[in-house]
Design goal:
By secondary structure, the protein is α/β, with parallel strands linked by helices. The protein has three domains: 135 residues, Rossmann fold (3-Layer(aba) Sandwich), CATH 3.40.50; 180 residues, Alpha-Beta Complex (Argininosuccinate synthetase, chain A, domain 2), CATH 3.90.1260; 33 residues, no CATH class. The protein is built from 14 helices and 14 strands. The chain has a five-stranded parallel sheet, sandwiched between helices. A five-stranded antiparallel sheet has the order 10-9-8-13-14. A four-stranded antiparallel sheet has the order 6-7-12-11. A hairpin with a 2-residue loop joins strand 9 and strand 10. Helix 8 crosses helix 9. The radius of gyration is 25 Å and the shape is elongated. The N and C termini lie far apart (82 Å). It binds arginine.
């Protein structure tokens, strides 16, 4: 008796997920493996990946283009929440996992599979995100994770695959582990494992080195409606076009590189390099527009929510009840976050230089230092007397 009869496997075309196909069949007695590759705008031809799965023994090889859903339903809500895990990582990889999990669960239902599978190892965050998302969407569905159990090194995995006729073309083998999609690239391993080693320039693809960026700054204007980015330099764009175009512009100016030591869910610290040009610019711009349109207390309270929300996404809890509850809070706060933010991109920086909104609660009459000042200066005196009263009482008491 095998562990499952029919399995839908999340497939990337890489060594691990390719080896998973014969492994599931020959070691775990699975009868049919259906692979599923998600097109998340990673800019890769998925046709060869589709054919490769069949050569590896899959009975069916699915490719689903979900780029638009990815940006609209996963990235944009994160932008509304200004999500930055550990204050830095905009979750470009993490956001893709709940969507892939949903595709797996839906495909399992459609094809009558009794399990789904992924190629994650036992050390990373992605296994947590897949497993938890899958159990949230279908608590009865089995999840198989061969790479968590097989105990093979990369070389051993390659020779295992070769036994079943899987060829791994001898392309210049990269020491890095890379995940990419429209939102960005995550790069780890190889020389990057030494936290003191500067990332070699070769790891970057979406962002230019400062030395190679234009010597003239470039301005961009991002329009938001209810917190959602809708236009770039006055052109109304669909979500995918907006993010791709902004990636290109910001990347050209070297904006969006992150080098950090990260706290993984499984307790390990890891050294991660990211490049997420558009996502970082959008979060920065969005946060600025909130400062123009939301009251101080909502903005400040939301900071705490944002931190929790970032952790939820990082930790695989996208489909959790807490996430749903926070979504309701965030949606309420975004009602008036409509307007335009102007940024200046130059030599790796995205500086905010202007913002405008019909819902602005910035009040020139109150803010001005000019003659038309409407603020009642005398009222400040009584306010300060009462505001400072507890502190004065305390000081008098400890001094006496
Ligand atoms: N550490 C990141 C995350 O947990 C990225 C992991 C992506 N995988 C990779 N092979 N680099 O979201």
């Amino acid at each position: 008796m095998g562990r499952a009869k029919k399995v839908v496997l999340a497939y990337s075309g890489g060594v691990d997920t390719s080896v998973c196909i014969p492994y599931l069949m020959h070691e775990w007695g699975v009868e049919e493996v259906i692979t599923l590759a998600a097109d998340l705008g990673q800019g890769e031809e998925l046709k060869p990946i589709q054919e490769k799965a069949l050569r590896c023994g899959a009975v069916e090889s699915l490719v689903e283009d979900v780029t638009k859903t990815f940006v609209k339903d996963y990235a944009f809500p994160a932008i509304c929440a200004n999500t930055l895990y550990d204050n830095r990582y905009p979750l470009s990889t993490a956001l893709a996992r709940p969507l892939i999990a949903k595709l797996l669960v839906d495909a399992a239902a459609k094809y009558g599979a009794d399990a789904v599978a992924h190629g994650c190892t036992g050390k990373g965050n992605d296994q947590v995100r897949f497993d938890v998302s899958i159990m949230a969407l279908n608590p009865e569905l089995k999840v198989l994770a061969p790479a968590r159990e097989w105990g093979m090194s990369r070389e051993e995995a390659i020779s295992y695959g070769e036994k079943f006729g899987i060829d791994f073309p001898v392309k210049k083998s990269s020491p890095y582990s890379i995940d990419k999609n429209l939102l960005g690239r995550s790069i780890e391993a190889g020389p990057l494992e030494d936290p003191m080693t500067e990332p070699p320039e070769e790891v970057y693809e979406m962002t230019k080195a400062i030395a190679d960026t234009p010597d003239e700054p470039e301005y961009v204007e991002i329009g938001f409606e209810h917190g959602i980015p809708v236009s770039l330099n006055g052109d109304r764009l669909d979500p995918v076009a907006l993010v791709s175009q902004l990636n290109a512009i910001a990347g050209k100016h070297g904006v969006g590189r992150i080098d950090m030591i990260e706290n993984r869910v499984v307790g390990i610290k890891s050294r991660e390099i990211y490049e997420t040009p558009a996502l970082l610019v959008l979060i920065q711009a969005h946060r600025d527009l909130e400062s123009l349109t939301l009251t101080a207390d909502v903005t400040q309270y939301k900071r705490g929510i944002e931190q929790t929300y970032s952790q939820l996404i990082y930790q695989g809890l996208w489909y959790s009840p807490l996430k749903q509850a926070l979504d309701a809070f965030i949606a309420q706060t975004q009602e008036r976050v409509t307007g335009t933010v102007r940024l200046k991109l130059f030599k790796g920086n995205a500086m905010i230089v202007g913002r405008q909104s019909d819902n602005s609660i910035y009040t020139p009459d109150l803010a001005t230092y000019g003659a038309d000042d409407q603020f009642d200066h005398k009222a400040a005196e009584g306010f300060i007397y009462i505001w400072g009263l507890p502190t004065r009482v305390w000081s008098q008491s400890v001094k006496s």
